[in-house]
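Bump. Still looking for Metallopeptidase family protein structure tokens.
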Amino acid sequence: MVHEPELEREQFLQLVEEVVQNLPEFFSSRIKNLGVIVMPLAPPELAQQMGKNPWSILGIYQGIPYNQRGPFYGNVLPDTIIIFQAPIEAIARTESEIKELVRRVTIHEIGHYFGFSDEELYRLEKEK
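Sorry for the wait, here they are.
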């Protein structure tokens, strides 16, 4: 599947950064040691590890969730959220849909940073 990006990488990255910068202070003040990366598509080995098609992976959180960090947490590599541009743009057809999906996916992955499971996050999204 060949995908022509809707947005330039920098524009897409800016959308992700806006979501992170506009988090409520309650959350933003607690985010430490977290990197956010944009990649075109999940690498095949990551998709295989997850048992998924790379085009079905919109984002991923990798690290030690906030609620599982003990008193000895420290001196570790940053946790990482990776947002995958191509599958998001393949699902969302307009720039406003892309923006909304980027917001939802980024917030979902930040939820994992705080220790929420997929089931908890989906339930919270439905209650919204």
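The domain at 9-127 is CATH 3.30.2010.20 (Zincin-like).

Edit: fixed formatting.
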